[in-house]
Amino acid sequence: MLAIDSTRKMSFNRTISNGDLAIVYARHDNMKPVTVSEGSVLQNRFGVFKHSDWIGKSFGSKVFSNKGGFVYLLAPTPELWTLVLSHRTQILYIADISFVVMYLEIVPGFVVLESGTGSGSLTTSLARAVAPTGHVYTFDFHEQRSGSARDDFEKIGISSLVTAGVRDIQGEGFPEEFAGLADAVFLDLPQPWLAIPSAAKMLRHDGTLCSFSPCIEQVQRSCETMQSNFTDIRTFEVLLRTYEVREGKMESLEIDGDDGSNGSLPPCKRRQRSDGASVVSYPSSSSVMARPCGEARGHTGYLTFARLN
Ligand SMILES: C[S@@+](CC[C@H](N)C(=O)[O-])C[C@H]1O[C@@H](n2cnc3c(N)ncnc32)[C@H](O)[C@@H]1O
C-alpha cells in the first residue's frame, strides 16, 4: 500500500505483481479488494477479467473484460481501504480520520499508541502518516479481532510500520516500555477515562492525545479525567456534507453574486434585486449540477484532543 522499498523510500510508481492487493474500482460506490493471483479471474456484471492481464500494469490502469467492460485497478491507499475493509467493529471514516491525523500533528518518524484497534481503519492512516521511520503500536483486548487486523496490515503492506498487540488497555494501561516515548496517543474505547492516566504516562512532554466517543456523557467524563494532566482540551464533531455531481439540463438559473468571470460558468446577465443582492441569470443550457447526497453520514462521534502539561 505504501510501497516502501528496501531503502525505506516511498515510491508511488508501482506496477501490479502476482500476490498484490488491488482495489477493483467500477464506481465510487462499487469497489472491491482483490488479491491478484495468476490463473484466477474476476467475474462481475461487466464480464470476466483475467488476473494475468493485470500483472505488470501500473496501479491506476483501466483493464477490460472479455465483453469489453472495464474497471480500474487502484492501489490500496488508506482512503480506499477504509471504504472496502470488512467491518468487524464500528470504524472511523475519512472525515474523522483526516481530522485526527492533522490535530494529533502526526508526522513521519512519530511513535503513536492506539487502542482499540477494531477493524484497523484508523491504523492504516496512522501508519502512512508516521512512515517511513515511525511506528504505530495498536492494542485491542479481543484476540481474534487483533489477529484479523494483523492479517489485514500484512495484506496491504504496512506490517513493518504497525505492531498489533492484545491487551486490556482500560484495565492494565499501555505497556510500561513506552513510558515517555509516545508522540501521540489515540483512544477509541468504551470507557476512555480509565485509560487516560496511562496515556499521560506514555506521552512525551507536549505530546498529544485524542479520544473518540459516540456519546457526550463519555466525553464529559473523559474531559474531567484529562484535567489532571492535560491542557488545551477541545472537543469537535466533524460533520461532512457530500455532493452528488451530475450532468443535466437547466431551464434557467439565478445565482446570488457570482458573475462567472472566472470562466467556470457560461455568459450571463447581472441585475440588482430590491434587497440590494446581486443576481446572475444564465440562459437554459445543459450543465453540471451538484446537490447534497441523500445518504450523507451524520453524527459519528466526538473527538476530544488534549496536550500533555
Ligand atoms: C469501535 S472499535 C475501534 C475501531 C477503530 N478505531 C477503527 O477505526 O477501526 C473499539 C475497539 O475497542 C476494543 N476494546 C474495548 N475495550 C477494550 C479494552 N479494555 N482494551 C483494549 N481494547 C478494547 C474493542 O474490542 C473494539 O475492537
Tell me about this structure.
With 309 residues, the chain is of the alpha+beta class. The chain folds into three domains: 21-76, Roll (Vcp-like ATPase, Chain A, domain 2), CATH 3.10.330; 80-239 and 299-308, Rossmann fold; 245-287. The chain is 20% helix and 34% strand. The strands form five sheets. A seven-stranded mixed beta sheet has the order 9-8-7-10-11-18-12, with helices on both faces. Helix 1 (78-84) packs antiparallel against helix 3 (121-130). The relative contact order is 0.11. Mean pLDDT is 89; it is low at 5-11. The structure holds S-adenosylmethionine. It catalyses: adenosine(58) in tRNA + S-adenosyl-L-methionine = N(1)-methyladenosine(58) in tRNA + S-adenosyl-L-homocysteine + H(+). One of its GO terms (cellular component) is nucleus. S-adenosyl-L-methionine binds at residues 119-122, 140, 168, 188. InterPro entries: SAM-dependent_MTases_sf, TRM61_C, tRNA_MeTrfase_Gcd14. It comes from Medicago truncatula (Barrel medic).
